[in-house]
From TrEMBL, chain A:
Gene3D superfamilies: 3.90.1010.10, BFD-like [2Fe-2S]-binding domain, Fe-S cluster assembly (FSCA)
The protein's role, per its UniProt record: May be involved in the formation or repair of [Fe-S] clusters present in iron-sulfur proteins.
Protein name in the entry: Nitrogen fixation protein NifU
Gene Ontology molecular function: 2 iron, 2 sulfur cluster binding; iron ion binding
Boundaries of every NIF system FeS cluster assembly NifU C-terminal domain copy: 246-310
Needed cofactors: Fe cation; [2Fe-2S] cluster
Keywords, ordered alphabetically: 2Fe-2S, Iron, Iron-sulfur, Metal-binding, Nitrogen fixation
Occurrences of domain NIF system FeS cluster assembly NifU N-terminal (ranges): 4-125
GO biological process terms, semicolon-separated: iron-sulfur cluster assembly
Species of provenance: Insolitispirillum peregrinum
Coiled-coil intervals, chain numbering: none
Binding site for [2Fe-2S] cluster: C138, C140, C173, C176
UniProtKB/TrEMBL annotation, chain B:
Signal sequence segment: none
Cofactor: pyridoxal 5'-phosphate
Protein name as catalogued: Cysteine desulfurase
Enzyme Commission number(s): 2.8.1.7
Length: 320, 404
């Protein structure tokens, strides 16, 4: 199994500050049960000195998620809010004597919970205005641009594998890999300008790192592969015909989803993007990406051309 | 009873301990009778006979009609690949494959490759929430466009058995070759292949107390076959390469032993498994057994403990000296729960915590009692840390994280 440090094991088997604070001054909650880890951080703050006098956590997750949560509480207790804001996910990992690379996302989750708890205490909106949290990049794990940017900058990430290890983004259905690579290239380019990275280290689009691209972890999105295979647009199909075929295909799928307590509803068609509402049992995280892929596959088969099925609520976020 | 049991191995579906009697049988063939079975001289004079004996022992365990139906391979994965690729090679005009959503990666990644790079159509037959195969979907996929149906005998994660005998019969009228990955079933389920329509079957030594790296492919007489590995004349030109003689001899002995333990496996091992399962479920709330409990391997139980995560459970079990395994994402290094649990649509409150205990004929009652006495405390301890749990029940108010 994992090569955890003794400190990770200590903080897992015997975590410090586990539990609840009855009247917390700030609470930060991140993650979800469907994604496999979730953390609630509660803090008590002395309003005079702005010192965090107590911190407790509750965590659903693996060994390193629990250890990272406990380490976080140890790091913040006794610090002022301003000092706590400077804590990074790397500080959490360092406190534990390091984490396996695949588990760095546990420290990132701790860091995100800290930011959320501080924002909850100070009443600030988490998303600063000049720095929008941005579009949801990874739908499966609910990772937005803001979190990707923080993780890339904070840990000098330069490959998609690293980004997945630190944030989980792109670790499930993989359809977001292109968007993640674009974001990674963009942030890396900024970091080069700022002198944080050399241009040789930076990730660029279009094969500057052919080795990383060939690694099995990075697969072209299943969608892209499908898209290449699908036949060219049937000549003479009007938009209306297309929408009718999509509508009909979705109606055929609904009984299957309803049998599992879910449902799907067509919201809009925009070019090759099909927007749907997923309901009930299918809207959980990884589960929804499976459903979406299923719907997408069925539609492509009917239409004989590539389409992208996107949850309607993701579009709202993308447009925002 | 509280002897200081330090290591309890309940991960026999991952691999088993090589039986000492198997090792003993193998030893002379490392350094005394080390000759090549094809050689004439005396260093290998007993080897050929011993390999023949092993082939007969494997055939006996499978209920095969002829010893020559057994081809030795490097294990389950090779047998699976050889079976499917041979079937495709033999029927180039058939462009479809039938398999299931819960196969081992030895089948699924090969099918994925064949789909992506060789343009095959793969019918992936789904399972229901108990892991039972959708036989109607299987039936609907059958046609003379299908080259091979590969359906596992028993699932490695839940132990659920598929009705492969019947499925093989259904495939026959379409001229479809029928293969079953029986890696988990061989040695635990009585087989009688001479009276079945199964054309090919994969088995792996290390799941039945033989060494790793040895396995076999059963090829019913009359089933045409194109070898995966070409070279010398070994295995009647069905699998080239100097024989893994020690492995083969070990596998033969292990099959002979498995046959003698078959009844024990289905009575005593099943009783201990049931005791373990009941002992845990009766003490722990919000825990349930996954898979088809009325139709599964005698040695396997897979229990989901809601609102906690599987790796954390395994770490605690390991500290108590108990080895088990989990379909949770975190243990495998992937970020999602296993494809088997997802295919079964286990609710996400539980998919991350499914823990598999797999017993063997070596498991003792004391060990089971010890596990039963330790699991509830581990579960309570982790639930006490969980934001989804409150005292002795799930939290009533929904936990509303910032991103989800
Ligand atoms: C169902 C199943 N098929 C195939 C295999 C692979 O067998 P081997 O490890 O001998 O290649 C395994 C074991 O991991 C298995 O459980």
């Amino acid at each position: 199994m994992w090569n955890y440090t003794d400190k990770v094991k200590d903080y897992f088997f015997d975590p410090k500050n586990a539990g609840v604070i009855d009247n917390p001054d700030g609470v930060g909650e991140v993650g979800s049960i469907s994604c496999g880890d979730a953390l609630r951080l509660m803090i008590k703050v002395d309003p005079e000195t702005m010192v965090i006098t107590d911190a407790k956590f509750q965590t659903f997750g693996c060994g390193s998620a629990i250890a990272s949560s406990s380490a976080l509480t140890e790091l913040v207790i006794g610090k002022t809010i301003d000092e706590a804001k400077k804590i990074t996910n790397q500080d959490i990992a360092d406190f534990l004597g390091g984490l396996p690379p695949e588990k760095m996302h546990c420290s990132v989750m701790g860091h995100e919970a800290l930011l959320a708890a501080i924002a909850n205490y100070t009443g600030e909106e988490l998303a600063e205005d000049d720095h929008e949290e941005g579009a949801l990049l990874c739908k499966c794990f609910g990772i937005d641009e803001g979190m990707v940017e923080r993780a890339v900058r904070g840990n000098k990430l330069t490959s998609l594998e690293q980004l997945t290890a630190y944030t989980k983004a792109g670790g499930a259905c993989k359809t977001c890999h292109e968007k993640l690579e674009e974001k990674l290239a963009e942030v890396n380019a900024e970091m080069v300008t700022e002198g944080m990275l050399t241009s040789a280290e930076a990730f660029t689009l279009g094969g500057a790192k052919p080795v990383a691209k060939a690694a099995p972890l990075i697969q072209i999105s299943p969608l892209a592969a499908e898209a290449k295979k699908a036949q060219p647009v049937k000549p003479g199909m009007t938009n209306l015909q297309k929408i009718m075929i999509i509508q009909q295909a979705i109606e055929e799928l609904r009984p299957h989803l309803q049998a599992d307590g879910g449902d799907v509803e067509l919201v809009d068609v925009d070019g090759d993007s099909v927007f749907v509402h997923l309901k009930g049992a299918c809207s959980g995280c990884q589960m929804s990406s499976i459903t979406l892929q299923g719907v997408q596959g069925a539609l492509m088969e009917k239409l004989g051309r590539p389409v992208r099925v996107i949850p309607a609520d993701a579009r709202r976020l993308m447009d925002a | 009873m509280t002897t200081d049991i330090k290591s309890i191995y309940l991960d026999n579906n991952a691999t088993t301990r090589c039986d000492p009697r198997v090792v003993e049988e193998m030893l002379p063939f490392f350094s005394e009778q080390f000759g090549n079975p094809s050689s004439i001289h005396s260093f290998g004079s007993q080897v050929g006979a011993k390999v023949r004996e092993a082939r007969a022992q494997v055939a006996a365990l499978l209920g095969a009609e002829h010893d020559s139906e057994i081809v030795f391979t490097s294990g389950g994965t090779e047998s699976d690949n050889a079976a499917i690729l041979s079937a495709l090679d033999l029927a180039p005009e058939r462009r479809e494959i039938i398999t299931t959503a819960v196969e081992h990666p030895a089948i699924l990644s090969l099918c994925d490759y064949l789909k992506k790079h060789k343009d095959y159509t793969i019918h992936i037959i789904p399972v229901d929430k108990q892991g039972r195969l959708d036989v109607a979907a299987y039936k609907a996929a059958l046609s003379d466009r299908v080259a091979i149906a590969s359906i596992m005998y028993a699932n490695n994660e839940t132990g659920t058995l598929f009705p492969v005998e019947g499925l093989a019969e259904m495939a026959k009228p379409y001229g479809i070759l029928f293969h079953t990955d029986a890696v988990q079933a061989v040695g635990k389920v009585a087989l009688d292949l001479k009276n079945s329509d199964i054309d090919m079957l994969s088995l792996s030594g290390h799941k039945l107390h033989a060494p790793k790296g040895i396995g076999a492919l059963y090829l019913k007489r009359g089933t045409r076959f194109r070898p995966l590995i070409r070279g010398g004349h070994q295995e009647r030109e069905r699998r080239a390469g100097t024989e893994n003689t020690t492995g083969i001899i070990g596998l033969g002995k292990a099959c002979e032993l498995a046959l003698t333990y078959m009844e024990h496996e289905n009575t005593e091992v099943a009783r201990l498994r049931d005791k373990l399962e009941q002992g845990i479920i009766s003490q722990v709330s919000h825990a349930f057994v996954t898979g088809d409990v009325r139709n599964r391997l005698p040695n396997t139980t897979n229990i989901a403990f809601e609102y906690i995560e599987g790796e954390a459970i395994l770490l605690f079990l390991n500290r108590m000296g108990i080895a088990a395994s989990s379909g949770s994402a975190c243990t495998s290094g992937s970020l999602e729960p296993s494809h088997v649990l997802r295919a079964m649509q286990i609710p996400f409150t539980a998919a991350h915590s499914a823990t598999r205990f797999s017993l063997s004929r070596e498991t003792t009652e004391d060990e089971i009692d010890y596990v039963i006495s330790h699991v509830p405390a581990i579960i309570s301890r982790l639930r006490a840390l969980s934001p989804y749990w409150d005292g002795d029940k799930p939290r009533a108010d929904a936990f509303q994280p910032d991103y989800a």
